[in-house]
Structure to design on (136 residues):
């Protein structure tokens, strides 16, 4: 079970980047492990994200080096919080560079969030990658 600090980070991420009328639905899903596993069923595409804060990277921009560079320019710190369909990664903090280089493309679906910079990212099951930022 997630501790209060992790749950607070997840709430912040959803409140910051989802359409305001969809936030309550996702917060409700976070409350139960059974519903939590269905979060990515709804986030398979970006229709629930606020389009003003969601920037898709093109295929030529999706190299690990480019992603790391873009996130660092947005002041993403070395540690990011991860929500993932992979139970080993879900609810953990990961170092940015090793995670992007070693785990990102092997993980089906993942949301990452840096609480210090208030910037995140999302990779869906089809390999689409989005930077989540209110300054995108």
């Amino acid at each position: 079970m997630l501790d209060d600090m992790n749950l607070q980070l997840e709430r912040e991420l959803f409140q910051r980047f989802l359409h305001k009328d969809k936030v309550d639905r996702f917060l409700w899903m976070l409350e139960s492990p059974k519903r939590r596993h269905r979060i990515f069923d709804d986030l398979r595409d970006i229709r629930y994200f606020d389009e003003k804060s969601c920037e898709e990277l093109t295929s030529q921009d999706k190299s690990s080096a480019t992603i790391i560079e873009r996130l660092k320019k947005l002041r993403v710190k070395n540690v990011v919080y991860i929500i993932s369909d992979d139970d080993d990664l879900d609810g953990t903090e990961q170092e940015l560079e090793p995670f992007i280089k070693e785990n990102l493309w092997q993980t089906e679906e993942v949301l990452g969030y840096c609480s210090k910079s208030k910037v995140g990212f999302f990779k869906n099951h089809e390999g689409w990658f989005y930077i989540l930022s209110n300054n995108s």
Summary: DSSP finds six helices and six strands in the chain.
